[in-house]
């Protein structure tokens, strides 16, 4: 009756051998790269066509395309092509563009869903950084996912902490975006 003991010992040996042979991908406990940018969104309101960097392209039946809907802007969809700067001055030299869309998706609070890219073409950085996620606007600091990139940011992934740095009614807002890459290729 020594054979069951030998089989058990053999399988335990194989289990420990295979479980320690490939430790798997280890998570990096600290970011491999940090960046901070600001992007400035000036929404078209029917009077500011020369300065507008975003526009409402979809509205609920009771809304229109020049004024955000009442009740937490629910149902509005906006596309944008916003300047990105290294500081919070709207008139600073842009280092790229934030291009994408957001839509207001909740009836009882201000929240939006974002999908956009930073298209960077400056002396320091060339390439794109792609973002996606929910934006509970009333929360001071919120995180969205960095899902990839190109150029200097090829296959980078991480977290972007966004904060509303300034706003003027429903026409202008500025976001501070603190990007932490945890996978840098």
Roughly how much helix do the residues carry, as a percent range?
A: 10-25%
Number-wise, the strands total 9
Strand content: over 45%
Major sheet size, sense and barrel closure: 8 strands, antiparallel, barrel
Please give the order of strands in the largest beta sheet: 1-3-4-5-6-7-8-9
The radius of gyration computed from the alpha-carbon positions, rounded to a whole number of angstroms, is: 23 Å
SSE series? HEEEEEEEEE
Residue runs with pLDDT of under 50 for 5 or more positions? none
The averaged pLDDT comes out at: 87
Shape: globular
How far from one another are the termini?
55 Å
SS field, number of helical segments:
1
Q: Give the structural class.
A: mainly beta
Question: Describe it for me?
Answer:
By secondary structure, the protein is mainly beta. It is built from one helix and nine strands. A hairpin with a 7-residue loop joins β4 and β5. The N and C termini lie far apart (55 Å). The model has no long low-confidence stretch (mean pLDDT 87).
Question: How is the secondary structure organized here?
Answer:
Layout: H1 3-21, E1 33-42, E2 54-58, E3 77-85, E4 96-104, E5 112-121, E6 126-135, E7 141-149, E8 157-168, E9 172-183
Antiparallel strand pairs: 1-3, 1-9, 2-3, 3-4, 4-5, 5-6, 6-7, 7-8, 8-9
Structure in a nutshell:
Helix content is 10%, strand content 46%.
Notable characteristics:
46% strand, 10% helix, 185 residues
């Amino acid at each position: 009756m020594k054979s069951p003991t030998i089989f058990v010992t053999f399988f335990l040996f194989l289990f420990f051998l295979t479980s320690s042979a490939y430790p798997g991908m280890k998570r990096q406990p600290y970011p491999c790269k940090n960046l901070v940018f600001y992007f400035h969104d000036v929404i078209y309101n029917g009077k500011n066509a020369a300065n507008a960097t975003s526009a409402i392209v979809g509205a609920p039946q009771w809304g229109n395309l020049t004024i955000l809907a009442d009740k937490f802007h629910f149902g509005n969809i906006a596309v944008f092509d916003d300047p990105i700067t290294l500081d919070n001055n709207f008139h600073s030299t842009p280092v790229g563009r934030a291009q994408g869309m957001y839509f207001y998706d909740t009836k009882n609070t201000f929240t939006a869903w974002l999908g956009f890219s930073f298209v960077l073409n400056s002396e320091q950085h060339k390439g794109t950084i792609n973002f996606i996620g929910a934006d509970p606007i009333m929360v001071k600091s919120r995180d969205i996912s960095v899902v990839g990139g190109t150029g200097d940011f090829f296959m980078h992934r991480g977290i972007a902490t966004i904060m509303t740095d300034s706003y003027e009614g429903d026409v202008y807002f500025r976001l501070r975006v603190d990007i932490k890459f945890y996978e840098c290729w």
